[in-house]
Structure formats: structure tokens, C-alpha cells
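Protein modeling request. Please complete all fields; requests missing the sequence field cannot be processed.
Requester role: graduate student
Desired output: 3D structure, C-alpha cell encoding
Chains: 1
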Amino acid sequence: MVLHRYLGQIRNASGQTVKQFADDMSVHGVAVAPGGGSEPSQGLSYRVVSKMTIYVPSSVSISPQDEVTVRGKRYGVDGDASGGWVSPFTGWSPGSAVTLKRVTG
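Delivered output (105 residues):
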């Protein structure tokens, strides 16, 4: 998995506002749970919304503005990462679940 950490917005040469990201960061030890896709059932839209969940180590923090590349496709983070909890019995911190969303068309 490659994490693209969001830095803010800048204006490009045409004066348009674009997102700015830090240098790519490879993250290892990530589990991927593919989700489903959906297509609108009305109109002439060719849009497809794909979702999946990734499970990242507790050492990795991901914000809702970040983007992630998984299996060669770039996804946006859909909401806040859930997790970050610690077992009161063992001190084990398993990590976080992050929902990703990709819209095409």
C-alpha cells in the first residue's frame, strides 16, 4: 500500500486549486478486504463507486483527506479511521480499519 499524505491546497499554473500531497510513503503489513461496487440505476450515468476496507498497523495514522494506492488503484479515504484502541489486558494495539472509496466515470 502507498500512502499519499494530504498537505493542503495550492494553485496550479492555470490558477485552479489542486490538492498537494507529501512524498509517497510505502506501508507494509496491511490487510485488504475488497468491498463491493455500485452503479446508479437511473439515467445515463456511467459512474461506478468502489469501496474496500484496509487494516493498517497501529504505527500508521491516516486522515480523511489522505489518499491511498492499493493494488495499483488510487482511492480516497472515506471518513475517519476506526480503531486505535489498546487491549486493557495485554496492551496489544492491533491497528485501525480504514474505509476507502473510488469513484470513476
